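Incident log entry.

Two folding requests arrived from the same account within the same minute. Monitoring flagged them as a possible duplicate submission, but the sequences differ. Recording both here for audit purposes.

Request one:
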Amino acid sequence: MAEIKEARVPDIGDYSDVPVIEVLVAVGDTVAKDQGLVTLESDKATLEVPSAYAGVVKELKVKLGDTLSEGAVVALIEAADDAAAAPPPQKAAAPEAAAKETPASETGAQVEPNSEGALQPDGLARREIEQVESVRPQPASAGAPATPPVKFDADSVLPSKVPYASPAVRVFARELGVDLAQVSGSEKGGRITREDVQKFVKAALSGGAAGAGASAAAGGGLNLLPWPKVDFAKFGEVEVKPLSRIKKISGANLARNWAMIPHVTQFEQADITELEALRVQLNKEQEKAKSGVKLTMLAFLIKASAAALKQFPDFNASLDAAGENLTLKKYFHIGFAADTPNGLVVPVIRDVDRKGVFEIAEETGALAKKARDGKLGPAEMSGGCFSISSLGGIGGTAFTPIVNAPEVAILGVSKSSIQPVWDGKQFQPKLLLPLSLSYDHRVIDGAAAARFTTYLSQVLADMRRVLL
């Protein structure tokens, strides 16, 4: 029968009242024998307190900032039946004998054998000690072919060369592929924390990791291969044309958004047969009235998108830089991609939920003209909640637009076409509009995206739904 055991701080030499800097487990966690429970930090070393038993953590007796000495109770463990057995035998003498075969000058560190469960605060973390043990030559068995010795760099495990971090942080960094030598520690004495590793990774993804090395810098902080340098002129005639200022700015933003946002694209087709007929009819009436306002499908798309955003508030939101909080917006400002000679810009129509399609069409036309003339102001391109990129006037069947951060979704629109649709009895010719919704998967899941595009296609099929 399982019984409650006290996991205590083992022999830590002459140290006492050592602060707890990390709690590695929580109540209810299942731990293995020798698994770390907490991390202690002395003035010379970082020490991990292992569990002497395998079982379930029933109670934690310490918290961050507490100080512990040898024998202090760290946690209560509901030990498995085999955990209550007699303690394991002492280590065999083979490692000690092997240690004698390897002079300390070859390993760069003096490692003394230690009793079971004891911590050795000699400036090397336990994992570095294990690394030294792993590279010591072992006696070859009779008849076994000799293997070449493992090349070992002693400098890599000297205390002055090893990055200052706890074993748990080292494991975390290894899982993320982070070289701790490139990370700056924020705690006392330059100790590297889990948060320091996370910040380093975020900075690397945005191309700004300081001290990431020449190769990382050449790859935008992502440890990519350097951009290929090719002398194209040796293959034939070339012309060098600098990118426009708009393309340089938008290119940097697009690269960041694509690298940092986990994109998924949901595809849908909207039946706009009746909507297109209505648009044509209204434009004929406008021509007779000589109002000068021409309705485009974009105006209806903007109006329909506002209705969908009201129905699904998470799409009308922004995620903060830490990826922890979502800001839900109560206003509906929608941007649209405008094609200009210098590149794409995104003017924003404000409060589209309060405007009719004629007013929206008039504003989109005016803003598009200002964009082509290069007279669009910063205020006219800010504050957007959701963007629409319409290529319907050009062609294509589908594409994957890139989310315009800090928005969480963008709608791509391709060219509509007449297609046969089965109505249950026969095929009917319908005008179908391809929709491509790209979204930030950290905020929106696939089911929500499918519901959003389904609702949007229903609104486009019958704009009376906007009144609901």
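Request two (distinct sequence, not a duplicate):
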Amino acid sequence: MSQSRLSRHLKILKEAGFLEVDRQGVWAYYKIKENLNLFCQDTLKNILHLSLNLPQFRKVSCPCPKE
């Protein structure tokens, strides 16, 4: 997936309430919100019941200390 397309998808997920972003300089680190609203919680639960071939993701830590 191209960087611009991925950025667009992340923006949509953030605006929908699924993600939060931590900006550090030119980098943006996204993570799933800890306290999701009921709609987001239900949506994620329903996705688990779909027969989708989703790629595996890995957790990445920031290599730089937070300021």
